[in-house]
Design a protein that fits this description.
heterodimer, A: 249 residues, alpha/beta, Purple Acid Phosphatase, chain A, domain 2, 9-stranded mixed sheet, 7-stranded mixed sheet, globular, B: 880 residues, Rossmann fold, 5 domains, 8-stranded parallel sheet, 32 strands
Chain lengths: 249, 880
Amino acid sequence: MEKFELVKGVEIINGFKAALVENEILVISDLQLGEELYFAEKGIFVPQIQLKEIKKELREIFKVVSISKLIINGDFKHEFGKASEQEWREVKELVNYLSKKVEEIILVRGNHDNYLLTIASYLNLKVFDPYYEVKGFVFTHGHKRIRYPKNSHTVIIGHEQPAILLKKGYEKMKLSCFLCGKLKDGKNLVCLPAFSPLASGTTVNLIEREELLSPILKEETDFEELKVIAVDKELGILKFPTLKKLKLV
Amino acid sequence: MIKKISLKKRINKKQILDFFRPYVRAWFLKTFKDFTLPQQYAIPLILKRKNVLVTAPTGSGKTLTAFLVILNELFSFAEKNKLEDKVYCIYISPLRALDNDIKRNLEIPLKEIPKIAKEKFGIELQEVRIGIRTGDTLPSEKAKQIKKPPHILITTPETLAITLGTKKFKEKLKDVKWVIIDEIHELANSKRGVHLSLSLERLSHFCGKEFVRIGLGATLEPLEEAAKFLVGKKDKNFRDCYIVDARFLKPIDLKVLVPSKDLIFENAETINKKLYSLLDELIQKHKTTLVFTNTRSGAERVHFHLKQLFPSRYLDEVTGVHHSSISRDIRFEVEEKLKEGKLKTVISSTSLELGIDIGYIDLVVQIGSPKSVSRLMQRIGRAGHKLHEISKGRIICLDRDDLVECLVMTKKCYEYWLDKFHMPRNCLDVLAQHLLGMALEKKWSVKEAFKVVKQAYPFSTLDFKSFLNVLKYLAGYFHTLRDHKVYGKIWLDEKDLMFGRRGKYARVIYSLNIGTIPDEIKIKVKNWENGKFIGFIEEGFLERLTKGDIFVLGGKTYEFVKARRDVAWVKEVKEKRPTIPSWFSEQLPLTFELALEVGRFREKLMKLIEKKSRKEVIRFLQKEYFANKDVAENIYDYFLLELEFLKKFKIDHYPSDKTILIENILEQDYQNIVFHTLYGRRVNDALSRAFAYVLMKEIGKSIGVAINDNGFILMIPRGRKLIEPKELLKLVKSKDLEKILRKALVNTELLKRKFRHVATRALMILRNYKGYEITVERQQMNAERLLKVVQNFKDFPVLEETYREILKDFFDVENAKKILKMIEEGKIKFEILPPSNLPSPFAHNLFVISESDVILMEDRKRLLLELYKKTLEEIEHGKV
């Protein structure tokens, strides 16, 4: 098993798009369940594969780590109209699966989770808004700036769905990646990639600071100084230097 | 039974006239002198209710052939007061402009005949109505047509298909007696035509009886195939059809011209200047000249330069441009001015090829090779409107390969030789549209629907499994295990084998999304530094661009900066290799048959040059190939250069259709293997990608390909050892070709682009849903993401169709296989030149003007690792 510590107390394993905090909490972000239905409603009929792929990756993760707490750091579900029975089915199915694997599931509210509260109470889940904190680790989705609790030392966000593009001549490849480094106030920062297999993501080595989605990344970090750690199912963890250097290639 | 009618037997004009009602006869005699040849032979057949395919040049009275009989019959009903409120005849053409022309032309007899009947014969006739129904028709007009249907309905293939999905208006078609398909040469070779063929079978099934099918066309070959396309099958046999072939009635006067005595050494700028002087001279000598270019941008360029170089002569009042990207109003204005004889010249790409009325043209100029004899005939046929007037055409060539091609083409024109059209078969995306349409009609048994579909010639070989897969796809089976309500546009009962409509949106989806022409949104390209407009790229191309990508547009290289709304911002860069392949070309491919002819010509001329004096060869070209002195000398010099080059290597078999010359050109980073496969781009596309793929597998590196009509290059990154062309040749066998190509296509730009088109046609990506145009979501869920998802499904019809379209319609995999087979049997031989850093003259164009793509390394893991390492290395040692 390949392991790498992004910042103190936050590790990644193999090529998974998840992070392990203090060896006991697993955190994932931006699952965007039901996105296919959203597109279908708009006239683009993408086959439904997300849930299947998400469960597959989770199964692989649970094979190598055993944890008691799982945090979904926002955008559990893709936004769409009213929460009908059918639209929520995937959420329920995944929650059912997860409850068999972990003791506690924590949901942090993201910008897409408009109807989350209704379903969460129904499924007996705890929802935190705007953040969840444990041992100084703050989990917040990242779509808005928040006031951090006292004594917190590490901020973990999602929302941006970072990815990098590698290219040479005609060859091109896009990989999901973690961003890690410091906030301007000295706290550690980790930005998680999207756990959704459908996500296209922000190509961080091709954009300027102004184009970032997350105000936390945009305003609270020295964006170019963040480090890029890419993950890939086949190759595992690929470490890069700072974005500043990457962008010069 | 498909039967060609002999045009030798003279037909008695009086006998034909006797068939007509007296007032129709009187009108005809008042308006025309005599029946034209196609009319003499086709009218008696149509009178006998036979299906007929009439092929004849413009001005031969083809359209009237069909309508004369139909008008006569309609007026005989009218005479007896028996004309009912229903559609008797449907006329279908691929162009709305042509529809308008037809209506206008028919309005004359519709007005004059009743007048003659009344004044001369004292007969009062019921009114015969004519109506247009196309995408332009207003809802109020459509509503009127339901109440008072036109007896003659003029429409387009798309609107006919939509009509079949309506509830009320469709009923008015129940008794249709005649269906006319105009410009069949334009339809039989495209998905639009395939679409129409299914509409006809659906109509026939709906009517429950046969109607007379009349096909009208100009230049196409083979006629038997076109006839089968027109009539389709009934049970196991093709419906009867008679062919009246009067394609070659019009005399032609065709010549190839070159603007320069020396196309090889004179610089491009001078040649260009001379081109416009030559063009101007031709235009000034004639009354009205129609200029054809091969691309829309070419048409714009010619227009611009004529105006710039001769401002006083090419004022807007007397000059026009006409192509499909130009707004309808402007096109219409140009057409009107042409008809009125007000224009001195019009420059067009393809849009004026078809039979719309354009008045008197006395010269057609073609710039560059039109790539097909049929197209050339079609184009020059626009000159000399009357049937026996000479069609005068001039082809201007700017490039040596073009010149050779055009000379061979001219010869073939005089020999009445035409290249064959290719009809797409078993198109699953077109089928998907129709199956949804059928589901709107009623509850179907799968078997019954399969039978109806197979009656259409393009679907006559469809297998049941593919058919059922399309139904499953439409029912949402591939998309989901449960949410059929969202994904299913139809329901399918697999046990009882029945299907029907699902959901309230099915009808709306059908009527708003039907059609086969891919609608790519155009994105403006502008210069980041000065805001100047550069050109257009397609939406799908923009999808592929990321910051820093280098691409080619209009012959220049640009670096992509960023996209904002509908503008792509770029910087001009020089001497950088493109990072995005430039396969987005509007260029037409050279037909296979013609390519073979050019190959034969190459060998023939090489041998002649070797044996005879310059003077003798030039005389031969002048006499046998109708070349003028400049043309003959240009070709002679070009061939002589190649011959001398080959002599240095002691090659004695010259490149031809039977001998493939192979060159091995070494650059610092690349080994370029050049194949002189003169078989047309559709074959070369298939061959080059297959060779590139197997080689990529061998050496584990991505291989670039460059392709044109005359050959292809494999661009191989140099390793320790050079690739031996001889060994390479053994790697692709004819029987494996399709299998290899399917693999080779997996990661290509071509697949992504075509998938996008097919997914739209197959209604997987809607253009319009619940009343609004879908654009934003289309950009979010781009073709690449979609493709990644659907690649998980076996036999997914949308992906299967994408592969089929690329292999069979875009490439010519059948002829590529034939070539490989001939290589295996030793019927085609190779001449391999030793490694060199200088390409032979025949290879020059391949290095300069060609299209490129790349066969990427397939081992994802290895490629990724390599990219990773390179990136880190660059950070460490490079610029950082």
